[in-house]
Structure formats: C-alpha cells, structure tokens
C-alpha cells in the first residue's frame, strides 16, 4: 500500500509539473498531452524558447564575468596605487611624542620622544596660571648635547643643527642629575634619528612601489572600460532578446495551443 501511495504521489507531481509547463483548458488538452505533429510542434516551440532563454542567460553571465575579470586585472594597478598612497599618508609623523623620564628633567629642559623643550618659568598671557609655556621647541634630529662643569656650577650645552647653541647652568649639587639628563637626551636623539631613518626608508619603498603601480596603470590605461561596457550592453541585449522570444512563445501557446499562458 505504501508503495502504491508513493507511486501515485510521484505520478501526480510529474503530471502537475507537466501541466505547469504546458497548461491547458479541458477543451484543448490535446496540445498538452497528444503526440500528434501539430501538438508536438507547439510544445517544441515553447520548450525551444525556454532553452534559448536559459542558454542566453548563461552565455551573458559568462561573458560579463570574463569581461569583469579582465577589467579587474586592468584596474588592479589603480587600486594598488590608492592603497600605497594611503599607506604613505598613514606613516607616523614625528610630533612631540610622549614624555621621556620626566622624573629626571631639570628646569627649563623637558625631554620628549621627538623634541627637546625649553620652558619659560611663567605662564604666557592667556595661559593657565602656574603652567609654564614653551620658550623653544627643538626637534631632536641633529642636535648635540654636552655636559660641562666649573668649580662653582655645572651646565648643559645644547647645540642646534645650524651650529648655534644654548646653555643652561645648575648648581654643583645638581651635577649627577645634569649628567643623567644629558645621557637621556643623547640616547633619545639616537632613538629619534633611528625612527626617522626607518620612516624615510619605508617612505622610499612606498614611493618606488607607487611609481611602479603608476607605470602599470599607464600601460593598462582605461582601454578596458569601453570593452567592459560593450560586453555588458551586449549581455543585456541578449537577455532582452531571449525574454522577448519566450514571451512570444508563451503568447502563441495561449492563443493557438493550450489556451492558458505558461507560468514561465
């Protein structure tokens, strides 16, 4: 009994599928089920239109995919150039940076990652009271710092890259602290200059890669865009033509064959 039910369900589903493909009204069922020459021709016309539409859509999809792949290959240098330019713009720039061992600072000197600050003793007009303002902001690259002493005092001399210098004096009891600060400044100058070398090296690499990407882009050019647009337009035309043929076949079936418009 179960086998019979399964067979009936399968047959029923097959009949329903056939009727969906070739619908009919009771009075004209011969177009759906008959194997006469006229009926077979009517069903074949509808089936061929469906197959032509399916084939047209597949070909259009393949042609668009191939054109898009070729276009992507052509514009890859452009995208790469954009990425490289963004990476270059994102390179870290030496601002002031974090404070370096502030517990060892001696007024008016304050050491940071990328600059040495000479502070004023009093706040400038418009600044918060009790807050010292910057007298000079000296980038660390190229500066030299020396520790010196006399019988009465010690001093720290900072020489700028242009050869000019500035000296700060401290009492003899600050000798160790002044020497430690000089050591910190010298070490930080080395770190800062290493930072600049790494940054300059990376920027040079990016500039070279950008030039190569621009050369590739110039070679590829925009020649591929018209081809891509042409292929897409041809694919749209192919689909539209296939859709029109199928509509005509469905209209023909409704008028001349089964009496109902097929669902697809």
Explain what you see:
With 264 residues, this protein is of the alpha+beta class. The chain has five helices and six strands, in the order H-H-H-E-E-E-E-E-E-H-H. The chain has helices spanning 2-21, 30-33, 37-89, 175-220, 224-256, and strands spanning 109-111, 115-119, 134-139, 144-149, 153-159, 165-171. Helix 3 (37-89) runs antiparallel to helix 4 and helix 3 (37-89) runs antiparallel to helix 5. Helix content is 59%, strand content 13%.
**Given the helix and strand composition, which structural class is it?**
alpha+beta
Number of strands: 6
> Biggest sheet: strands side by side, in what order?
1-2-3
Largest sheet: 3 strands, antiparallel
Low-pLDDT regions: 126-130
Strand content: 5-15%
> Could you state the order of secondary-structure elements as H and E?
HHHEEEEEEHH
How helical, in percent, are the residues? Answer: 55-70%
CA-based shape? rod-shaped
What is the residue-mean pLDDT, rounded to a whole number? 81
Determine Rg (CA atoms, Å): 42 Å
Gap between N and C termini: 36 Å
Helical stretch tally: 5
Defining traits:
3-stranded antiparallel β-sheet; single chain; 13% strand; 59% helix; 264 residues; rod-shaped; alpha+beta; 6 strands
């Amino acid at each position: 009994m179960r086998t019979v039910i399964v067979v009936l369900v399968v047959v029923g589903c097959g009949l329903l599928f056939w009727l969906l493909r070739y619908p009919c009204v009771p009075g004209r069922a011969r177009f759906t089920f008959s194997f006469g020459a006229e009926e077979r021709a009517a069903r074949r016309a509808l089936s061929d239109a469906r197959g032509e539409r399916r084939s047209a859509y597949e070909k259009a999809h393949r042609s668009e995919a191939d054109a898009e792949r070729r276009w992507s290959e052509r514009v890859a240098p452009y995208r790469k150039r954009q990425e490289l330019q963004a990476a270059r713009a994102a390179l870290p720039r030496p601002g002031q940076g974090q404070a370096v061992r502030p517990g060892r600072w001696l007024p008016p000197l304050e050491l940071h990652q990328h600059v040495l600050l000479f502070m004023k003793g009093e706040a400038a007009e418009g600044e918060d009271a009790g807050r010292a303002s910057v007298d000079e902001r000296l980038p660390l690259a190229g500066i030299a710092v020396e520790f010196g002493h006399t019988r009465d005092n010690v001093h720290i001399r900072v020489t700028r890259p242009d050869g000019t210098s500035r000296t700060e004096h401290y009492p003899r009891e600050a000798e160790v602290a002044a020497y430690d600060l000089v050591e910190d400044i010298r070490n930080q100058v080395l770190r800062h200059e290493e930072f600049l070398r790494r940054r300059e090296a990376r920027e040079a690499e990016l500039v070279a890669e950008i030039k190569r990407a621009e050369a590739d882009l110039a070679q590829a050019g925009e020649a591929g865009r018209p081809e891509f647009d042409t292929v897409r337009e041809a694919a749209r035309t192919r689909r539209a033509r296939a859709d029109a043929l199928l509509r005509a076949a469905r209209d023909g079936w409704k008028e001349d064959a089964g009496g109902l418009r097929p669902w697809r």
